[in-house]
Amino acid sequence: MSARLLLPLFLGAAVALATLPAHARTPRLSLIEQAQSCDGGHTCPYFPDVYKADYAFRKAFNVGLKKAGLKRQRWVPDGVASPLKPVEIDGKARLLSSVCEPHNCGHRYSILYDPAERSMTGVYMGSDGKGGLRTVYFGEPSIAEADLLFKN
To answer: What is the average per-residue pLDDT within 11-20?
Structure first.
């Protein structure tokens, strides 16, 4: 084929590419990457979405619970949640979020996820069955982490 015949083809392809929206040309960020760069508002990904989509996040959560002798509640994948927001604690970048049982936020988890280490610390707060509060930490949080988790 001659250059004369190929030129219109290349120009057509260039015009088509230029008309694509910018978001279609850039690689899509994972939910964890979105959370790391968000402002903590409604545009940040929520706990259930990340739990369902990100294997490392889900594994860190489930392993942390198991090591603490806790079972994952059935409502976790569809719980009422806060967005994952970036925080710095103990000199490390983490993602902070919480998820609670629909229509009963007396049962909830608050978590800190370390994307670099793919590890999680957290706390479960719920009824102890006697009218009191049951609080169980998992993932061995530092004192500063435990304080933040409890207040979240």
So the answer is: 54
Buried b (16+ CB within 10 A) or exposed e, 86-97: beebeeeebbbb
94 in Cβ contact with 114 (< 8 Å): yes
What domains does the chain contain, in order, with CATH numbers?
Answer: 29-151 (3.40.1420.10)
- What is the three-state SS of the chain? CCHHHHHHHHHHHHHHHHCCCHHHHCCCCCHHHHHHCCCCCCCCCEHHHHHHHCHHHHHHHHHHHHHCCCCCCCCHHHCEECECEEEEECCEEEEEEEEEECCEEEEEEEEEEECCCCEEEEEEEEECCCCCEEEEEECCCCHHHHHHHHHC
Report the pLDDT value the prediction gives residue 99, as an integer from 0 to 100.
94
pLDDT tens digits for range 38-47: 887 778 999 9
What's the rounded Cα separation, in Å, for the pair 50 and 41?
A: 15
Query: Residue 127: what pLDDT?
Result: 81
